Amino acid sequence: MASEHLAQLVSDTARRFEENFQSPPRWIVAAPGRVNLIGEHIDYNDGFVLPMAIDCYCVLAACEKPAGDPGETATVRSITTDGQVDITLAKPERGDAGAWWNYVAGVIAGGRDVDLLPSKFWALVASDVPLGGGLSSSASLEVATATLLEAMTGTTLDPVAKALLCQQAEHQYAGVPCGIMDQFISAMGRADHLMLLDCRSQEVEHIPLVDESVTVMIVNSNVRHELSGGEYAERRSQCESAAKKLGVASLRDATLDQLESHRTKLEPVEYRRARHAISEIGRTTAAAQAVKAGDWPRVGELMVASHESLRDDYEVSCPELDLLVDLARDLGPEGGVFGTRMTGGGFGGCTVTLVRTADVDRVDRHVAGVYQQETGIEPSVLTSRPARGAHVVKAD
User: Fold this and answer.
1) Distance (Å, rounded) from C-alpha 195 to C-alpha 207?
2) In CATH, 4-209+387-395 is 3.30.230.10
3) What is the mean pLDDT of residues 55-80?
4) The three-state (H, E, C) secondary structure of the chain, written as one string
5) What torsion do the CA atoms of 239, 244, 249, 254 make, to the nearest 10 degrees?
């Protein structure tokens, strides 16, 4: 069953579709954004991640064009970015760098290789996944597009193949060499479940999070620091160099004892990067077990340790994220906060906090209020239970 929030977004999108194209939509699909509870910067080290789908969605409404409409194209309008584009179905072209429709065109192009060959159509995109906050607005658009193509063609892909198709669209059309987490959780998320994803084997385990006494709070710092370029590639290279010196295929295969015994072989920065990756992999699997046990204080401890590692060893945090984390930590379990950390690539973006549901409003007021006082920046706060992954809402 759709949440009230999603039901309203679907209703609004259907209405706007008819206003734009003078026809009711035949298909409506939805795909969520995500937040990663723990497991950061370890996908390229073959580690584990623990994301969940959030109750923010990209919704696509569509119908076939009439037979007399010229050209074999998909006319896609976005009310989120206020733009419209015609995509040639036989050979979708890339737009300029950063163009929102590259995500759509990339999925249509990849779909041709797996028999997702729709007839010409109109489509309307509406999304309330925050843009630029590290909550996977791009992956939700990709997965929604793939889900729409499935509904239109009657061809259902294996979920892993569907997620990988969307990942390749982002690589090839958007030029972003992302990992697999965002597309996997958007495509395969389950309501009231986290997803433990093995980035090496691509195996998925759904971890129940059914305790309604805890809520996930996401606070967007609303800052994004301009970087000199190459920070992520540099860290990946440092991890690969450390793995080579440790004699392992990836840091997934190393232990902290092994790292300590080889410390003199590594540059100090390589040692710190490797210590984060190895310890974060352990924290992620431990957090999954703690969630299963309902041990929220333990989950919280692991989240805080993750933030400290990202801040000190991986050096991808920033003053604003550290402030948000400190403000939440100051409340502690007695104030309703089990744990908190930065989430996403870093240098800005969001924190994720595990909060006692009864204390959500108080935590929100404290963290957002003091943050705005100290920085002059108004943060954006949303709360979510683990939400449902991509699905068809309507298909005539």
Assistant:
1) 6
2) yes
3) 93
4) CCCHHHHHHHHHHHHHHHHHHCCCCCEEEEEEEEEECCCCCCHHHCCEECEEEEEEEEEEEEEECCCCCCCCEEEEEECCCCEEEEEECCCCCCCCCCCCHHHHHHHHHHHHHHCCCCCCEEEEEEECCCCCCCCCHHHHHHHHHHHHHHHHHCCCCCHHHHHHHHHHHHHHHHCCCCCCHHHHHHHHCCCCEEEEEECCCCCEEEEECCCCCEEEEEEEEEEECCCCCCHHHHHHHHHHHHHHHHCCCCHHHCCHHHHHHCHHHCCHHHHHHHHHHHHHHHHHHHHHHHHHHCCHHHHHHHHHHHHHHHHHCCCCCCHHHHHHHHHHHHHCHHHCEEEEEEECCCCEEEEEEEEEHHHHHHHHHHHHHHHHHHHCCCCEEEEECCCCCCEEEEEC
5) -70
**What is the C-alpha separation between 12 and 2, in angstroms, rounded?**
14
Residue 227 confidence (pLDDT): 62
Mean pLDDT over 168-183 rounds to 88
DSSP-assigned beta bridge partners for residue 121: 64, 74
212-228: pLDDT as tens digits: 999 999 999 999 876 65
**CA-based Rg of the chain, rounded to a whole angstrom?**
21
In sequence order, the β-bridge partners of residue 219 are 351, 381
Chain-centre distance for alpha carbon 195:
12
Tokens of 202: 């691509």
182: annotated active-site residue:
yes
Q: What residue spans define the domains of the chain?
A: 4-209+387-395
Tokens linked to 7: 């039901």
What is the overall mean pLDDT for the chain? 94
| Nearest one of 261, 228, 234 to 245, comparing CA atoms | 261
- Pick the catalytic residue from 43, 55, 128, 182: 182
